[in-house]
Amino acid sequence: MKLVRSFKCLDIIKRQSIAFFVIIGIYTLLYAGMQWSLSNGMGHLYINGRLTQLMGIRKDKFNNTHNIFLMDSNMDDLNHLVAGGKSSEHTANTEPCPETPPGLVGRLNISLPNIHKSVTNEDSLLRVGYGGRYRPSDCVAKERVGIIIPYRDRKEHLTILTRHLHNILQRQQLEYQIFVIEMALPTQFNRGLLVNVGVLFAKESGNFSCFIIHDVDALMMNDRNLYRCGSQPRHLVTGSTKYRSANKEYALPYDKYMSGVIALTDSQYKKANGFSNLYFGWGGEDDDFYIRVTNAKMTFKRPENDVGIYLAIPHENDLSNPINPSRVDILNKASARQSREGINSFYENGKKIGYKRYAIEYRQYYTWLLIGVNEAAIVKQFEE
Ligand code: UDH
Ligand code: NGS
């Protein structure tokens, strides 16, 4: 009897071992397949919390998000997945929101020593949908705004800015989504290229009537500075603490300076052919864009002087954004290059070229896109 029992026991152990190895084998195959697909151009999509019932999702150890592996090109599916959530709850009220939002307070009481606290409104954060989307629930927004933030390694600034924007843009009764576009190392930072990619990505993600190109360290100080587009491109900064002098609290470095925060419709952006992609490192891309806008027979408009004021968060120089020694040479040829190099550079026979999407993450307060760029290839493409 004892012998029979121990045989049975052995049999069970054998079967369990086989099952164990089969499961390990399947996991190994799945994991290898996943790695292979990632290294062959498939993007990651990370979505916060709620979609855990889907296949191919694993919890991210570090930031409590979930990763979903999907084809890069499948933006319609991605949008469908992240639709829903608080921001897209349908409102019964189809009345347009008023021209002047009723809750504005004007000059904002924000200051550096207490910056986190002074920009945060917890209620506004609770109303944000996946990927940093929002839509007013009591009226139809006057504008659907895509906020594009070119970004690398400024985590603290990003936390502050996104909190501030969610608070103020909801008060401005806008429908909006925040996009953070990051360039993977080791490539030198390229603000213009990131903005172009951001606008293209935002256009795939939603139907935006206006794009706001926003530096990560610029905090608006007056909520009457409405984040809307106009019949001409808009420079929303009339003065920043960054250029503060003894006799001027908020200033600009020169009159044609058009950086920090600008607002353009898709058609205005296209008319200028977007930013140049050739400025790797610091400086020049904003002056180049000014030339492009002017060549396209448009002008930048600014809000009232006391409305377009900004608090600039101070920071050290960025190691991967050194001053570009070629910037003036590139700038001198801005007009000659404009029609063949810009936002139109990225498509060849309907295919994206010049950069790779490494990851898309629908984070709690913004949508994040990480791209890889081959600097030598981009520069070579446009060598005279
Ligand atoms: N940016 C990053 N990370 C970087 C570099 C730039 O996120 O490493 C983004 C960010 O949105 C920033 C914007 O690009 O607000 C513009 O960057 P910038 O370095 O041109 O401007 P910023 O006002 O600094 O941040 C200016 C200091 C550079 C001094 C060079 C010589 N005067
Ligand atoms: C100009 C740069 C711009 C820059 C501006 C302000 O000289 O890109 O200074 O810079 N143009 C060129 O270098 C050709 S700041 O004072 O903010 O560091 O935006």
Describe the structure in your own words.
With 384 residues, the protein is an alpha/beta fold. The chain has one domain: Spore Coat Polysaccharide Biosynthesis Protein SpsA, Chain A (Alpha-Beta Complex). It has helices at 2-39, 75-82, 115-119, 122-126, 155-171, 191-205, 266-271, 285-295, 327-332, 334-337, 375-381, and strands at residues 43-47, 57-59, 66-70, 133-134, 144-151, 175-183, 210-214, 218-220, 234-235, 239-240, 261-264, 309-312, 347-348, 351-352, 355-362, 367-373. Strands 1, 2, 3, 4, 5, 6, 7, 9, 11, 15 and 16 form an eleven-stranded mixed beta sheet that branches. Strands 8-12-10 form a three-stranded mixed beta sheet. Strands 13-14 form a two-stranded antiparallel ribbon. The longest helix has 38 residues, at 2-39. The model is unreliable at 34-44, 46-74 and 81-85 (pLDDT under 50). It binds 6-aminohexyl-uridine-C1,5'-diphosphate and 2-acetamido-2-deoxy-6-O-sulfo-beta-D-glucopyranose.
